Amino acid sequence: LYRRVPKFGFKNHARVEYVGINIDTLNALAEAKNITEFNLDVFKENGLISAKDRIKILGRGELNTKISVSAHAFSATAKQTIEAKGGVATVIE
Question: Do 12 and 48 touch, CB atoms closer than 8 A?
Answer without folding.
Answer: no
